[in-house]
Specification:
The protein is α/β, with parallel strands linked by helices. The protein has helices at 8-15, 64-70, 81-91, 97-115, 117-125, 133-139, 189-192, 195-206, 217-224, 230-238, 251-260, and strands at 35-40, 45-50, 76-80, 149-157, 165-172, 175-180, 209-216, 243-245. The radius of gyration is 21 Å and the shape is elongated. It starts with 7 loop residues before the first helix and ends with a helix.
């Protein structure tokens, strides 16, 4: 079961947005995108095949070896259906969608390393497996510095007619506990525009310290495409395009360290 008290679909779309369709070249490596396959290990036939931007439905029901022979120049990442069933069963032991995804990623890499080292390498370097820079930092050494529980309000500015869009992440004991667009209907429009007041409002509601980060939407999207954008994040903070309200957890210092040290 999945904890439905939080918007995990929004979480996935925000931190792992889909790339554009119809582009047959892998932007990160300059090679064709890998093909992901689930097959029946007994009958050796394709149950489903997927790659970004292409329709591979015609391969359903056809021999897995025929697919491999046809796509000799493509990397094939293939899983036996029984392996997939076991991975799903293991992942559903958690109620948090994010933890389920992480379990699936870990188990899938382990399965491939045991039988197909090339596929394991391809999967490990695929865009879908590249963790968002902010999540990676929060789960990394930042976790030894930040409070045991806290909230992070991300305000993306520069939308239609100067409007902004808010996203709220709660971290408890190192786990991403909740993510959604916060309900600020209890605040006046004037108070909603004040990031410090919004932070206080959310602190009273969720009983956690809240750090607000206001960042231009265009810059946020650019950073999200980069595995290590911290130098640009720091420059944006220094130029005051990105603002922290208030810097209650030393986030400014953490950003500076991420920008200048390989940690």
């Amino acid at each position: 079961m999945v904890d439905l008290s939080c918007d995990w679909k929004l979480f996935q779309n925000f931190f792992q947005p889909k790339s554009g369709t119809g582009v047959p070249v892998h932007a990160e490596r300059g090679t064709s995108k890998p093909i992901y396959v689930v097959f029946d290990g007994t009958e050796q036939v394709v149950l489903t095949a997927f790659t970004e931007g292409e329709d591979l439905s015609e391969w359903m029901g056809r021999p897995i070896q025929e697919l491999r022979s046809h796509w000799l120049a493509r990397d094939i990442v293939a899983f036996d259906r029984n392996e997939v069933d076991e991975m799903i069963q293991s992942a559903t032991s958690s109620t948090r969608f994010y933890d389920q995804i992480e379990e699936m990623r870990s188990r899938s890499r382990s399965v491939l390393r045991a039988g197909d080292s090339r596929a394991a390498f391809v999967l490990g370097n695929a865009r879908v497996n590249r963790k968002h820079f902010l999540l990676r930092s929060i789960e990394g050494w930042w976790s030894r510095v930040l409070p045991d529980q806290f909230g992070l309000l991300l305000r993306l500015t520069g939308h239609h007619a100067g409007e902004s869009q808010d996203f709220f992440l709660v971290v408890r004991r190192g786990k991403f506990d909740c993510f959604h667009e916060p309900d600020l209907s209890g605040m006046s429009l004037e108070r909603r525009r004040d990031c410090a007041q919004v932070a206080k409002f959310l602190e009273d509601r969720y009983l956690v310290k809240v750090q607000t980060v206001s960042v231009p939407s265009s810059e946020w999207k650019e950073w999200a495409r980069d595995a290590d954008p911290w130098e640009r994040v720091l420059q944006s903070v220094k130029s005051k395009r990105t603002r922290l309200y208030p810097d209650v957890m030393g986030v400014r210092s953490l950003i500076r360290l991420k920008a200048i040290l390989p940690v």
